[in-house]
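Worked example

This section walks through a single chain of length 321. The input is the sequence exactly as stored; nothing has been trimmed or padded.
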Amino acid sequence: MGGNDAQLLADSLVAADVRGIHSHGVLRVPDYVEKLLAGGVDPNGRPTLVSDRAAAIVVDGGNSMGQIGAWFAMGLAIERAKATNVAVAAVRGSNHCGAMFHYAMRALPEDMIGIAMTNALPTMAPWGGKDKIVGINPLAVAIPSQDEPPVVLDAAFSYSSHGKIRVYRQKGEPIPATWAYDSDGLPTTDAAKAIEGLLQPIGEYKGVGLAIVSGVLSTLLSGASYGSESGNMAEGAKAGHDGHVFIAINVAGFEDVARFKSRVDGIVQEIRGSARAVGTSRLYAPGGLEAETEASYRREGIPLNEMTWEGLECASRRVSP
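Given that input, the structure is written out below as tokens.
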């Protein structure tokens, strides 16, 4: 993997940590090193443009690290949206690409709305089922603002992710009872049992339905693998089978940019100034808490737990000459 690719990958992990999304930060380094050393993911893989039809773009990630193809595809969507106002880049031949907000937020400096979706290994069952055939398939949307923090939603369609549960397991702390089921399908607060079991969807059947739709958009437009076609949690992901989709919407193609961004500010301010429930100290629009966390971490540094540091040191030894 070349220096530019390594820097891009590192940037994506630090971007997650600095916004407090530690489940997708440098915690992932040992796993990524293993993927590269095991010979599955191609460290020299290059994303290529497969199909280019006006606002519809298809990219093959070349079995590179997912961040490489994702960054490439989002860049193409943004550039194309300058001419077509809306552009969609669908990706196949990719791998795990980290936190999706990182790509959606790339559209913000261009006064565009960024949307990013990806498939994920199956960790949920259809509503009422027991088989792991549905991924949590996250969605990120970034909406530009003027003076307030941008509105940024990055959410999977489960109450939590395996990455977050891993953080709790590292800390030896129980997880909320709404996050996961054990292998018998019963709610559990034991992080280790949760990793072996099923993730609980948000909103019951609605969350599962949204996950299925996000998975279809992330994979079928490009011809990537859907659901169990991409692997499973027991045996791992099949290298080069992941899919993503990136959408850029040029605000100027629809509305005066200054007016749009000012109205977004107004929405954020209305949320922040609205009445709070008992015990709630502050209300946030999506992305507001992460923006505060980022400001704090940039001043004071990013706190990482001991197991994350140990993982980084171990990974460093594995790749040191």
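What to look for: The mean pLDDT is 94.
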